[in-house]
Amino acid sequence: MTDHPIEIWHRIVRQRDPSALMGLLAEDAVFYSPVVHTPQHGRKRVATYLGAAFHVFFNPTFHYVREIVGASDAMLEFETELDGIQVNGVDLIKWNEAGQIVEFKVMIRPLKAITMVHQRMAALLQSDR
Prior knowledge:
This protein is α+β, with helices and mostly antiparallel strands. It has helices at residues 5-15, 21-24, 43-57, 111-127, and strands spanning 25-32, 40-41, 63-69, 73-82, 85-95, 101-109. 36% of the residues lie in helices and 36% in strands. A hairpin with a 5-residue loop joins strand 5 (85-95) and strand 6. Helix 3 packs across helix 4.
């Protein structure tokens, strides 16, 4: 039996291994960022944005505090601290019948956190170009 997409996601997060994202993302995956106006389309682009998010969000304080999982989608609430700012957010994840993520949406609060995440993500994504 194949692992559930959320189990795979948790394993990737635990291992801090963004290279494993390519196998979990559908070719036509879409990423909705809390700081970028337009959706990002395609497996490679989504993996790039999620990989940058790994660097910004994942530190020893990052942890999921709640999850709601349905038949083809989930909401994972997380908390982390960035430079003394408490960040609270949700990952909304939708997958297809093959168990591949087709949509990943991130929402965060408070405004100070959004500003900081925007600055850090922009710096990382600019360095990839």
